[in-house]
Design brief:
- The structure is a single chain.
- By secondary structure, the protein is an alpha+beta fold.
- The chain has a single domain, classed as 2,3-Dihydroxybiphenyl 1,2-Dioxygenase, domain 1.
- It has helices at residues 38-48, 107-116, and strands at 12-13, 30-35, 52-59, 64-71, 75-81, 100-104, 125-126, 133-138, 144-149.
- The protein has a 5-stranded mixed beta sheet with strand order 1-6-9-8-7, with helices on one face. A 4-stranded mixed beta sheet has the order 2-5-4-3, covered by helices on one side.
- A hairpin with a 4-residue loop joins strand 3 and strand 4.
- It starts with 11 loop residues before the first strand and ends with a strand.
- This is VOC family protein.
C-alpha cells in the first residue's frame, strides 16, 4: 500500500487494510484515545505526528474537548480530554488495547522526525512472522504507539 505523498508525515493506521469476508465494510473507522492534557496531546498528534484536524469540539457539559484527526487517507483518531482520567492499570500488558500501529514507508525517516521532537523510540526490531521492521514509542499519556514499515 502506497501512502499519499501530500500527507505531512506519511502515517496511516496499520489496521486500516480491508480484510475480505469480515465485518461488512471491513475497515477500522476510528480509534478513540482519552488524554489527560488536551493541549499537550493535540500538539503531539497534530504537530509531531502530523495528523490533520477534521473537527474540534468543546463540550461544555463535560468540560471536555473532542478532536477528530485524519490519519492517512481515510482513518481517524478521536482524541478526548477529560479531567483527571485514570492511568493505564498496568504497563505494558493491560487488558484492552495493547498499542496502536501506524504503517510507514520509511521507518528511519519517521524515527528521525520523532527524535527531532525529543520523542524516544525503542530499538528497531524485526517482525519474525513478516520480516518487516518496527519500533515503539509513546504518546504524552504513555499510550504505546508503533511504527511498522511496510
Amino acid at each position: 500500500m502506497r501512502l499519499a505523498s501530500r500527507r505531512k508525515h506519511n502515517l496511516v493506521c496499520a489496521s486500516s487494510r480491508r480484510i475480505p469476508r469480515s465485518l461488512d465494510g471491513g475497515a477500522c473507522q476510528h480509534v478513540a484515545i482519552i488524554c489527560a492534557d488536551y493541549a499537550r496531546s493535540k500538539h503531539f498528534y497534530t504537530e509531531i505526528l502530523g495528523f490533520e484536524v477534521i473537527a474540534e469540539t468543546y463540550r461544555a457539559e463535560r468540560d471536555s474537548y473532542k478532536l477528530d484527526l485524519r490519519v492517512g487517507d481515510r482513518d481517524q483518531i478521536e482524541l478526548f480530554s477529560f479531567a483527571n482520567p485514570p492511568a493505564r492499570p498496568s504497563y505494558p500488558e493491560a487488558r484492552g488495547l495493547r498499542h496502536l500501529a501506524f504503517a510507514v514507508d520509511d521507518l528511519e525517516a519517521e524515527i528521525a522526525k520523532l527524535h527531532h521532537h525529543n520523542v524516544e523510540t525503542e530499538p528497531v526490531r524485526m517482525d519474525e512472522m513478516t520480516g518487516q521492521r518496527f519500533t515503539f514509542f509513546h504518546d504524552p499519556d504513555r499510550l504505546p504507539l508503533e511504527l511498522y514499515e511496510h
